[in-house]
Amino acid sequence: MKILGIETSCDETAAAVIEDGEYIHSNVVASQATLHAQYGGIVPEIASRQHMITIVPVIRQALDEASMEAHELDGVAVTHGPGLAGALLIGVNAAKGFSLANELPFIGLNHLEGHIYAAWLEDGVNPEESPGFPLMCLIASGGHTDLILMKGHGDYTLIARTRDDAAGEAFDKAARALGLGFPGGPEIQRVAEHSIGGEPRFPRPVVRNSLDFSFSGLKTAVARRAEEYGIYPPSKEAPPDLQQVANVADAFQEAVVDCMVQRTIQAAKHYSVKGVILGGGVAANSHLRQEMHKHVPIEVIVPRPGLCTDNGAMMGAAGFFHFRDGHFRDGVRSQWDVDVVPSLRLG
Ligand code: KG4
Ligand code: ZN
Known about the structure:
Nucleotidyltransferase, domain 5, 5-stranded mixed sheet
């Protein structure tokens, strides 16, 4: 079954052709990061407009790279939430139009579910067979830091979430305080490699009697230290000590990663899961990947970095399981009335 997956919830315009939820025929991602970088964050209206310009060429390219015509597809799956309303509208409407014109079944899906199903896209990896359900999924992105218990396809329970900032948001804000570019996650990772260590460690915020996360205190602690070291606000007369920037970035990254690793281990133990899936943009972080593999005592599945950040392939993979599991039988061929849901939750 070949599914066209479409994703426009944030600042990536993406489309992909996926077969049987695991084989990638094509995966096209047009990132808007450089457009938003000058503002130090995502500007929703610019995102919507850019999706509008890019969506048709991106879908065309996904079909071309898959050497496929629309009539060879079996369905269309698109993100309808969570995300930026205007950005989601572009993808959902493009997907509806494409489905209608080509008489294909259509489904709107949760973006977080896509991040989970990215794990099925790696060659030779099938979390359902090995290690098998139940699985604990840590989805860490620009808007979410969720631990989701997955007992089977479509069976999700939200176990923990962030009480304030998402992990990706903390990376982005810490990077800004350190005078680094946007998106902040890859920048922090890059400069942290030059750290010589010795930086006083940042606190590991905990929420009592809960597995929830909290990152805003950490972000503030980085901002304070940046001020103390004269890194922020930026000054032309006194440029920052790049070694200090690297050391602070490293200490911050250590703290965020440590929180996520510890919470994931606790949740995995408490729910006696067989394995852990990591997903979302922050799961592209090399230190997080390393530490999870090192400390989590059960199997950890983490897709390659390009499948952790937003893409259409993950939506195509998630779409396959919905189509396969019969959400479209009984005469309901498509959810034409699907709307965008900016704060859609999973579990
Ligand atoms: O999943 P994603 O692409 O979009 C959302 O659904 O939000 O995640 C984007 C977030 C950004 O905050 C970005 O800074 C972060 O993921 N990110 C990283 C890395 N690559 C992207 N954070 C840490 N390390 C990375 N290598
Ligand atoms: Zn995402």
